[in-house]
């Protein structure tokens, strides 16, 4: 089944971005339109498009500049099979993670889901949170109090 959401990142140099995503992170190239500075990339079930600013069609807000870091306020969480392999490639390239490797558990209702994760900025400053799934476990910390009346859904 095709993904319902596929981010397209405006990038300053699609050759550099393509190299970063493919050689360091581990994406594979599905297809490209070099004349437009466009590439469609895949990593497991994750799909991502990169598109060079100023080539082909550039989606831009009128009057807004493309200033570094791009994508402020968002991080793309990408599930991978082995975070260590990616960290080793990044270290060999001299790239330091934005968020160092950690094990983190997130509450989801009566359970917790675990991630072994780190975050790294791509060449244009987009934050990628790469994680390895650690599974689920019962929520073990003390109750945090009642859910807000506005948040009464299944995950509250």
What is the secondary structure topology, with strand pairs?
Elements lengths: L7 E4 L2 H12 L2 E6 L4 E6 L2 E7 L22 E5 L3 H10 L6 E10 L2 E11 L5 E12 L18
Parallel strand pairs: 1-4, 5-8
Antiparallel strand pairs: 2-3, 3-4, 6-7, 7-8
Structural description of this entry:
With 156 residues, the protein is mostly beta strands. It has a single domain, classed as 2,3-Dihydroxybiphenyl 1,2-Dioxygenase, domain 1 (Roll), CATH 3.10.180.10. The protein is 14% helix and 39% strand. It contains 2 helices and 8 strands. The strands form 2 sheets. Strands 1-4-3-2 form a 4-stranded mixed beta sheet, with helices on one face. The protein has a 4-stranded mixed beta sheet with strand order 5-8-7-6, with no helix packed on it. The chain starts with 7 loop residues before the first strand and ends in an 18-residue tail after the last strand. The mean pLDDT is 86. Keywords: Antibiotic resistance. It comes from Phytopseudomonas flavescens. This is Bleomycin resistance protein. Belongs to the bleomycin resistance protein family.
- Beta-strand portion reads 35-45%
Q: Which structural category fits the helices and strands? A: mainly beta
Helix content range: 10-25%
Major β-sheet profile: 4 strands, mixed
Shape: elongated
Specify the CATH class: Alpha Beta
Tally of helical runs: 2
Count of spatially separate domains = 1
- The CATH architecture comes to Roll
Succession of helices and strands:
EHEEEEHEEE
């Amino acid at each position: 089944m095709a993904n319902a959401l596929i981010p397209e990142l405006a990038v300053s140099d699609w050759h550099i971005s393509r190299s970063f995503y493919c050689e360091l992170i581990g994406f594979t190239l599905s297809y490209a339109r070099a004349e437009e500075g466009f590439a469609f990339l895949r990593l497991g079930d994750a799909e991502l498009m990169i598109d060079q600013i100023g080539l082909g069609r550039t989606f831009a807000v009128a009057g807004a500049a493309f200033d570094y870091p791009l994508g402020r306020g968002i991080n793309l969480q990408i599930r991978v099979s082995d975070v260590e392999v990616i960290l080793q490639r990044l270290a060999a390239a001299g790239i330091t993670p934005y968020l160092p490797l950690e094990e983190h558990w997130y509450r989801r209702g009566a359970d917790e889901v675990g991630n072994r994760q780190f975050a790294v900025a791509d060449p244009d400053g987009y934050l990628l949170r790469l994680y390895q799934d650690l599974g689920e476990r019962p929520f073990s910390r003390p109750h945090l109090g009642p859910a807000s009346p506005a948040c009464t859904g299944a995950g509250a």
